[in-house]
Amino acid sequence: xxxxSLPLLMRVNGRPVIxxxxxxxxxxxxxxxxxxxxxxxxxxxxxxxxxxxxEDEAEARAAVERLKARGVLVNAVxxxxxxxxxxxAIVDRDPLLVAIGTGGxxxxxxxxxxxxxxxxxxxxxxxxxxALFAARDALRARFPEPPDRRRALADAMSPGGPLDPMGExxxxxxxxxxxxxxxxxxxxxxxxxxxxxxxxxQARALANADAVHxxxxxxxxILARARADADRIPCDRPPESGLYxxxxx
Length: 249
Known about the structure:
four-stranded parallel sheet, Rossmann fold, about 20% strand, Double Stranded RNA Binding Domain
């Protein structure tokens, strides 16, 4: 299972970004760049990134070729095959940013999802993120081991928990008594190789596991739902504790 792109968040504040083109598309990209603090420049300026928002096909391709020849990473508006990077639809809850990307194939779909998420994600979620960042030293003191800290946060942020992102979580109240979550032990017998058929409980266990023990027949698409830094350990029988996945025969 592979991605068409690696999602990244790049700081461009105070840095030059080339923007070529005129009209509605170029104006929209200029607003996004300026909102991120980028310095919008022309083609003759040295910059790591460029956006080509030129309508004429031949002119746009020529500009893309010139820029790529200089080692500049290019976003070519409405031409996904020419793009080194793409701009996602963004839900802004500063400092929290939710980015929805389709690799440039459907900006309309990304925009529709953004509008849906705007109504679901609380307006004060950014302030809650700042409160947790401010309390990071207290959290590290309370939970010195990263797995314990991760489990405590995951438990608090679960649906209905004191830090539920979709609820009205009070970080200050939770931080006064952040109860540790016990180390989970799950034996999951999967009935489908389709990752979209994972139950909420199963998906949460995969997302929080530090190591995933699994039978050899568990599909890679299922294992991909675990954290990228979680160990994948093939084995024929469940360990004494931890997460074990097997497929139903």
